[in-house]
Amino acid sequence: MRPRPAFLTVFGSLAAAALAATSAVAAVPSDGPNVAPPVSQAVLATDTDGDSLPDIWETNGYDANGDGVIDVDLKAMGADPKKKDLFVEMDYMAGRLASVAALDRIVQVFAQAPVMNPNGTAGINIHLDAGPVGGTKYNLGGGNEVPYDADLNPAATETTAIKNTHFKPARKAVFHYALFGDSYGGGCSSGNAFAIPNDTFIVTVGPKCNWNATDNTNVGTFIHELGHNLGLRHGGSDHVNYKPNYLSVMNYFFQLGGVPKADGTRYWSYSNVAPAALNETALKESIGLGPNLDTYKTSWKCPDGTSRTSTGTASGRIDWNCDGDTVDTGAADINDDNLTNTLTTQNNWANITFGGGAVGQGANVQSKTAPTELQEMTRDEWIELQHNHK
């Protein structure tokens, strides 16, 4: 978790309203009938579960402009000050919103997160808001169909314009903003989070680029892009992609197909293990990714540009140089970046950053990743990966 920023003392409702317009710090209500007294800095700073949403917001609601009226009733939406919560409003172009079944899977992934809470339970409660089309499960009073635009270009500018039109300003301190669109930037990328960490992302697996937007595609891309909002990177500790030892949907290998498991299922989540680093100059085929990974398989790149998935477990023997045996110790470029480096990894769940962008108590104070580092998987890359898989 990042350090909490110092809070300003707010005097009166006019000052509170001005502050709320530019930051996510809880505004102090003005004095008047049926209005609670000003909230102390200590109370605002209290965040028992560490999700960047102060306890008082999760208990009493969030008053964005200091007028004494609750603008976002977090408790009514299911927030718990002793269990980590994530809120995501989902706006969408016609036909682009993920199915209810896909949204159910996303909720389940976060519910099963190996993250402990002060109330003694594990998991994160993610609250998805699609508006009226979300039915009783996924309607928290936001979520809108927006005008169709086959190409968000420039992506950041057009996404911001749509967000400013359809996303209530009072929600910016509480909700991440997701937009399901068609494509962006004149290309065929699957999505973008624009910065790391952040509060906004897009999922763009629409018909313009002939994406087949299955539930798997939407689930993997949504969790991947939200992962960037939560501070996660393509390579765990860095942006080096296609690492065989990075068992996460943040890895392009596994974003759209899931991490293969030894039992034949797929893992659609962030990594909950951090296997040993792989030195590409001295790979030992007899030990695979190392011990304690018997429930996983993995994928890697071969010298001829094809990719393979292990037939046995990730802890077993792996033919890193693709020569037909698993007895060698030597060099191989197993992520096809034309280098032989040491590939490090990360336990994603142990490194989640809450409060990216304007979400939470410290709006826009975190370091950002340059947009050039957030080039995402394109449809052509995905097709090539499938075509070249052996």
From TrEMBL:
InterPro entries: MetalloPept_cat_dom_sf. Pfam families: Reprolysin_3 (PF13582). GO terms for molecular function: metallopeptidase activity. Keywords: Signal. Residues 1-26 form the signal peptide. This is Uncharacterized protein. It comes from Kribbella albertanoniae. The lineage of its organism: Bacteria, Bacillati, Actinomycetota, Actinomycetes, Propionibacteriales.
